[in-house]
Amino acid sequence: MNIQKENALLGIREKFNDLSQLVLYQLDLLEKIINRGDTTIPPALLDELNANEIDIDDLEIQLGDEIIDTIVLQQPVATDLRQVMAVYQMVSNLERIGDLVMNIVYFIPRIQDDHVYSKMSEVMSNMLMASVSMVKRSILSFTTNDKEEAIWTIKNDAVVDEMNRKLIKKAITKSDIPEETQHLLFTFINLNNIISNIERIGDHATNIAESSIYALEGRDIRHVKLDDE
User: Fold this and answer.
1) Residue 81's domain is classified under what CATH number?
2) Is 125 within a domain?
3) How far apart are CA 224 and CA 216, in angstroms?
4) Are 218 and 68 in contact (CB under 8 A)?
5) 23 in Cβ contact with 104 (< 8 Å)
6) Which partner for 123 in 57, 114, 171, 173 could form a disulfide, CB atoms 3.0-4.6 Å apart?
7) CA pair distance 31, 24, nearest whole angstrom
8) Helices (H) and strands (E) in the chain, counts
9) 91, 101, 196, 217 from 202: Cα distances, Å
10) Residue 28 backbone phi and psi in degrees, to 5
């Protein structure tokens, strides 16, 4: 038995668990914010979210380095290598979920109509709970080697998307918002979906560029502000 390899794989597993639990905690904090139905976020809660985001970014970079070192130095067998590469892919997605939490936190105080936000907060809370359940079960599928949890998550993606659309429509149509305003809201929701997907294309392009620089120079520039060159 290669003790160094086993320790390296164990270290990756432990850090992955730390990262996944921290991301889930961020989602719990976000749920509390949305359940308040208030666009004002308590400063202490905001400070905690920001501190956790920094820790998430640090864990992502640490895990990336440890995974590369393990592959190069320990040369894991095929089964272990698949596990390590799966962690590498999941880490990127977990970090992105953390970013999305902070994006939502950033936009909540910018909402100018507290009445509309209050009407929509219950809908957003239900949507978030469904999404958090998917995140939890996808992580559980890996940590417990349970394929069924992964299959459930994949199958429920479309179900959750459809549920979210129906919840939003129901919340708007059942509210006391004038019909003209309802039409305007639906328009902005659809526009926002289009814009969000365009933004994600740009995000993936940035990820590819960061990976290219890492391949060329061995320099990890994620979470680093680049100076003009």
Assistant:
1) 1.20.58.220
2) no
3) 17
4) no
5) no
6) 171
7) 11
8) 6, 0
9) 20, 18, 10, 22
10) -65, -40
For residue 31 the two structure tokens come to 């749920």
Pairwise pLDDT comparison (157 vs 27), residue with the higher score? 27
**Has residue 184 been placed in a domain?**
no
What is the 8-class DSSP label of residue 226?
P
> What range defines the domain where residue 70 resides?
1-110
Q: At 24, which amino acid appears?
A: L
| Domains contained in the chain, number | 1
DSSP state for residue 1 in the 8-state scheme:
-
Nearest to 37 by CA among 97, 102, 111: 111
Q: Are residues 63 and 17 in contact, defined by beta-carbon separation less than 8 angstroms?
A: no
Give the model confidence (pLDDT) of 62-95 as tens digits.
999 999 999 998 888 888 888 888 889 889 889 9
- Max distance between CA atoms of the chain, in angstroms, equals 70
Cβ proximity of 134 and 153 under 8 Å? yes
Which H or E run contains 114?
A: helix 114-143
Instruction: Determine, yes or no, domain membership for 146.
Output: no
Instruction: Identify the DSSP state of 175.
Output: S
Report pLDDT digits (tens) over 113-170: 787 788 778 878 888 888 888 899 998 888 888 888 888 888 887 777 787 778 778 7
Report if residue 135 sits inside a domain: no
Helices (H), 36-113: 43-69, 78-107
Angle at 167 (CA atoms; ends 122, 184), nearest 5 degrees:
95
